[in-house]
């Protein structure tokens, strides 16, 4: 399944920020007919709970074509797309959630993101209680999550900070293949995953890179990795490989950094693109707010079996059966 001697891969998703012109390389500015179609579909779905909206409910020739192209870009192109041009002031929160979920149904199947059973997560600073990264204002370093496509929809920026970052996992792969192929081999071997809610740890290793059916993809989330918070306990070569991986992900000539503006929607393939966020500061009269989707993608890119099992267990822990698009 995995190549024993990793070599650079030729894939449109193996980009660097400068090569594609930063965020402009994956930004699509919505046309007036597309915006008009969104407006009509928001009105058509008025009174519906966002997560009950199906693809057929949010369909028009303009939107079908737009999101088919977006889905292709996510699976076969750069692995990322920003949809820009929605007037954030035009809609209330409920309408924003309907249009966001409706567009998402064209990409994949939305799932619950926590035991709160939130199909659309509110990414904002919260006070007290059990906190996860998206409910804090702290920096989140480059990482992946657990579902094939992720998305953020900006409704309000913070007065300062909160910039997003995107890094091609395949660009990191290719740089390692050229500069330190010995360390890349350690990432193909992978590490054991310990999920706190799992009574028995997964004994099969989950690789940081895998190649299936000629398609290379990757995963990098240390929170669920055995000894992820105690790197001194990791095998020396894996520890060195992860440190080099992190160093590449921080290179300015590799990554694309940008501030997602209100009304902009960012979709990315979670196993092709790592995302990050700078810390931010709210004020009493202006609090940062983004919406988030996690999407499983039927017929998507080949996923490593250990990754697929972990994703399914997370979905089961977070609640009931996923919504059907």
UniProtKB/TrEMBL annotation:
Gene Ontology biological process terms, A to Z: antibiotic biosynthetic process
Protein origin, superkingdom: Bacteria
SUPFAM superfamilies recorded: Clavaminate synthase-like (SSF51197)
One term of GO molecular function: 2-oxoglutarate-dependent dioxygenase activity
Cofactor: Fe(2+)
Keyword annotations from UniProtKB, A to Z: Antibiotic biosynthesis, Dioxygenase, Oxidoreductase
Chain ranges of the TauD/TfdA-like domain: 55-294
Keyword Membrane: no
UniProt xrefs under Pfam families: TauD
Protein name per UniProt: TauD/TfdA family dioxygenase
Native source species: Sphingobium nicotianae
């Amino acid at each position: 399944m995995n190549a024993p001697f990793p070599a650079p891969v030729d894939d449109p998703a193996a980009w660097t920020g400068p090569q594609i012109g930063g965020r402009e390389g994956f930004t699509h500015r919505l046309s007036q007919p597309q915006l008009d179609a969104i407006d009509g579909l928001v009105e058509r779905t008025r009174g519906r709970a966002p997560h009950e909206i199906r693809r057929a409910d949010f369909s028009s020739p303009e939107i079908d074509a737009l999101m088919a192209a977006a889905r292709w870009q996510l699976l076969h192109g750069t692995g990322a797309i920003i949809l820009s041009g929605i007037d954030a002031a035009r809609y209330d929160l409920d309408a924003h959630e309907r249009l966001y979920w409706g567009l998402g149904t064209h990409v994949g199947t939305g799932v619950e993101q926590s035991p709160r059973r939130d199909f659309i997560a509110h990414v904002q600073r919260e006070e007290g209680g059990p906190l996860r990264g998206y409910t804090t204002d702290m920096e989140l370093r480059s990482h992946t999550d657990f579902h094939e496509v992720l998305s953020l929809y900006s409704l309000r920026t913070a007065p300062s900070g909160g910039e997003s970052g995107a890094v091609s996992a395949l660009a990191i792969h290719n740089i390692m293949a050229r500069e330190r192929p010995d360390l890349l081999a350690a990432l193909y071997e992978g590490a054991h995953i310990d999920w706190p809610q799992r009574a028995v740890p997964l004994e099969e290793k989950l690789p940081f890179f895998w190649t299936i059916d000629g398609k290379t993809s990757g995963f990098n989330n240390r929170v669920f990795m055995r000894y992820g918070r105690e790197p001194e306990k990791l095998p020396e070569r894996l520890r060195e490989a992860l440190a080099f991986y992190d160093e590449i992900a921080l290179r300015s000539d590799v990554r694309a950094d940008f501030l997602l503006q209100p009304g902009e929607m960012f979709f990315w393939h979670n196993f092709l693109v790592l995302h990050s966020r700078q810390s931010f500061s709210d004020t009493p009269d202006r609090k940062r707010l983004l919406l988030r989707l996690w999407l499983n993608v039927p017929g998507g890119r080949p996923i490593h079996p250990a990754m697929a099992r972990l994703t399914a267990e997370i979905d089961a822990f977070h609640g009931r059966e996923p919504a059907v698009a």
